[in-house]
Design goal:
The complex is a heterotrimer. By secondary structure, chain B is an all-alpha fold. Helices cover 72% and strands 1% of the residues of chain B. Chain C has helices at 2-24, 30-58, 65-84. In chain C, α1 runs antiparallel to α2 and α2 (30-58) runs antiparallel to α3. The chains are: A alpha+beta, B mainly alpha, C mainly alpha.
């Protein structure tokens, strides 16, 4: 420390530094307090805005026979789906036996339409493959979707499972489609998990 | 009231514990703001987290800072523990501080475990399910209590609510109580002196708590805070997809990095299926040993060079944790054959032990050679020790050479991957260690004759010290 | 000491400017959230440097210029990076 510094000089310097430090500290507090803006978000509550899917009747319990698929479009008219009664309990299955499921018919790889293959059958395009459980087999590149486990990819190049349709059965035996599970249907923001994309890019089916 | 702090304590290594508390304060602030928006129910958990991420002012910033500061808190707690271990702070009279500190470390891991589930993503729910499965495999008394605590009567909703309550109320309260106890003990014992002892004049130089030491803490806190902020800018977060059983089926769960070591232990083939409770008991035993460390290591010596065994064990401990964690991260879902595990873990420990004891012998002359004079009564004759050492070195050398050749051929034939590189590196290191060991052994044998030392002047000094 | 005083004044001005920016940012875009983080970091580091000067000059020594230089360099880096952020 340089000699010849008078006591008053040192005292002034101390006071200056003290003031500077206090001021600096207050600025830090102000900076951190800016986070409180996050606490005052004027938008309402934390609940999300659920995408509003229409409720569409797609069949009745008496229409369906085991392993005979039915085609229907949902939620838009360019989104084909397959509805099938599997004969064994499946994930997401409805009905008295929990075996009625529906999936989008568009493969998540490149959008080809795939077909339902009951257990033990072989697809026409590939006779060397035999399904050992109810699956969807895509002839374009050989993707196999497991209909017992929510459309998970059993084999093939699809990078994600095929979206499952959320079904509901009422007391009179009518089956309704009421929503879609993620991922998004192929061609509607493909690859995202935002199911609201399924409602855009086409005309909605009628809800009669 | 609060005693002044000696000047040697103005050094970041003395403040690792304080920085852990600073991290906790950051967690509390960011957490409390997020609590205004998060809803702890299985249906609303992910949407509300997504809402924070996308719509809340500074939401993404809060989430990023919260996550990275959580990692920093766990890392700092671990560094604090290891620094105190190596500097022997836990010895008399501070044994209770170590034990309270270990409980706090446990609570910190609990924070990590409970917080990880809350966003209800594919990654977090799958990993937590596995974790709960492992809790069930703990020894009976512990598992029944812990299981009930975190899962209750069962079901996703109860589990999430309990995890949330533990994370925001129970664990913070416990941590604060333990912190108060530890601070009280710190005040009564004072800050531990440096290992090399403090010479009189420096001892008198103390700084008052206010303003000097408080300012130092604020400085450290400010630098730490800005580091956390910058990390969250450089590594922006994105939310994994929401949990659904279908998505989870295609996913190999892996725990967060601080539990990877347990994950890797549990993946060893002998611990499969019925062996899992054995693995969990071993982990419990490890924690118990850590807890009771001050009562296991009763030696009063604190200098590193006076504690060859415990320093070596400490280095092996850290090295094994890092090895296990890295290995676990590159082999998700793969079972490890027990021979591989023995090779990697045993090899790491062996190499470190050899290097460490070699260093202690050559650098610090702390391990005296037993061959310098004839065998004392009751001592095993030198020729048997030599025979055994040579045998061990020869076997080790043969094994190392064989393994090196084997892995090299494997790499050429089957291609490179992380595991093969690890194998190759460890066998090459083992080989190098065997060579070093042979040199040390030959050196020890040379002592009576002295023909090597005559040629290498440097070794003369060491021999004169030991003879 | 006089050099330290100038540094302290400059740091306070920097803090004022960055805190001012903090409160004016749009709070939902991820770019401005990153900017917020950088400005808050500038704020905290300035405080750390001022506290360091104060603490060192309280005892007999003077603040080591090397730390202040490193700190200032870091702050300059942060300011530039906040501008080129995308």
């Amino acid at each position: 420390m340089p000699t010849g510094t008078s006591v008053e000089d040192k005292h002034d310097r101390r006071t200056f530094l003290k003031v500077a430090l206090t001021f600096s500290g207050l600025l830090v507090v102000a900076g951190i307090a800016a986070i409180t803006r996050a606490a005052t978000n004027p938008a309402p509550s934390g609940a999300s805005e659920n995408a509003t899917f229409p409720k569409v009747k797609v069949g009745t319990l008496t229409d369906l026979q085991a392993n005979l698929p039915l085609q229907f479009n949902y939620p838009l008219d360019n989104e084909p789906n397959v509805l099938v009664k599997l004969g064994q309990k499946a994930d997401g299955g409805v009905g008295p036996d929990g075996d009625i499921v529906a999936f989008s018919s568009l493969c998540q790889h490149l959008g080809c339409v795939y077909a339902f293959q009951p257990t033990g059958s072989s697809p026409q395009c590939n006779s060397s493959y035999t399904a050992d459980s109810p699956v969807g087999y895509c002839c374009c590149h050989g993707t196999v979707f497991d209909f017992l486990h929510g459309g998970a990819v059993q084999a093939g190049p699809s990078p994600r499972p095929v979206p499952q349709v959320i079904l509901q059965v009422d007391e009179s035996g009518s089956i309704y489609a009421i929503g879609m599970r993620p991922p998004a249907i192929f061609g509607h923001n493909t690859g995202s998990n935002d199911t609201s994309s399924d409602l855009q890019g086409g005309n909605p089916v009628s809800t009669t | 009231m609060l005693r002044p702090v000696p000047e040697y304590a103005i050094n970041p290594f003395y403040w690792l514990g304080a920085l852990t508390v600073v991290a906790f304060v950051i967690q509390a602030v960011t957490g409390m703001v997020m609590m205004l928006y998060y809803v702890p129910s299985p249906i609303e958990a992910f949407p509300s987290t997504q809402y924070i991420f996308e719509q809340v002012y500074y939401g993404r910033f809060l989430e990023s800072v919260h996550l990275y500061t959580a990692y920093a808190m766990i890392m700092l707690a671990f560094m604090h523990m290891m620094r105190d271990y190596f500097v022997s702070v836990y010895k008399k009279p501070r044994e209770m501080m170590w034990i309270v500190g270990m409980v706090m470390g446990f609570v910190t891991l609990g924070f990590g475990f409970t917080g990880y589930l809350l966003p209800w993503t594919v990654v977090s729910k799958s990993a937590t399910d596995v974790g709960i499965g492992m809790i069930d495999a703990l020894p009976a008394q512990i598992s029944s209590f812990l299981s009930f605590l975190v899962v209750g009567a069962g079901g996703d909703a109860t589990e999430l609510l309990r995890f949330y309550d533990l994370h925001v109320i129970v664990l913070p309260a416990v941590l604060l109580v333990l912190l108060t106890i530890k601070m009280y003990m710190l005040e009564s014992h004072g800050i531990a002196e440096p290992v090399t002892g403090v010479v009189g004049k420096e001892k008198k130089r103390t700084l008052p708590i206010f303003p000097d030491v408080s300012l130092y803490l604020l400085e450290l806190a400010a630098v730490f805070g800005s580091a956390m902020l910058l990390i969250s800018v450089i590594f922006p977060l994105s939310l994994p997809p929401q949990y659904s059983p279908q998505l989870a089926a295609q996913f190999t769960p892996q725990p967060d990095w601080y539990f990877l070591w347990i994950y890797q232990i549990v993946k060893i083939s002998i611990f499969e299926g019925p062996g899992l409770p054995v693995a969990m008991s071993l982990v419990t035993l490890l924690f118990i040993v850590l807890f009771l460390l001050p009562f296991i290591d009763r030696n009063e010596k604190r200098r590193l060079i006076d504690r060859p065994v415990f320093v070596t064990i400490g280095v092996i401990f850290v090295a094994e944790l890092i090895t296990l964690a890295y290995w676990g991260s590159v082999t998700p879902g793969q079972i490890i054959p027990v021979e591989q595990a023995a090779l990697v873990l045993g090899g790491t420990a062996l190499i470190i032990a050899l290097v460490s004891f070699g260093a202690y012998r050559i650098l610090f002359s702390r391990i005296k050679p037993k061959l310098s004079v004839g065998p004392k009564p009751g001592q095993i004759p030198a020729k048997f020790t030599t025979l055994f050492s040579f045998g061990a070195l020869a076997t080790g050398g043969a094994f190392a050479i064989g393994n090196t050749l084997n892995t090299t051929v494997n790499i050429i034939v089957q291609g490179l991957d992380n595991w093969k590189v690890l194998q190759l590196t460890s066998s090459v290191f083992l080989f190098a260690a065997v060579i070093v060991g042979t040199i040390i052994l030959i050196y020890r044998i040379e002592l009576p004759n002295g023909s090597i030392t005559k040629r290498i002047r440097r070794l003369e000094k060491t021999t004169h010290e030991t003879q | 000491m006089k050099r330290n005083d100038i540094v302290v004044v400059l740091l306070i001005i920097l803090q004022l400017a960055s805190t001012n920016f903090l409160w004016g940012l749009d709070a939902t875009s991820s770019v401005s959230q990153s900017r917020f983080a950088i400005f808050l970091a500038i704020d905290l580091l300035s405080f750390a440097m001022i506290a360091y000067v104060f603490r060192k000059t309280h005892t007999v020594e003077s603040a080591y210029r090397s730390w202040l230089l490193i700190g200032s360099f870091g702050l300059a880096l942060l300011l530039i990076s906040s501008l080129i952020l995308s």
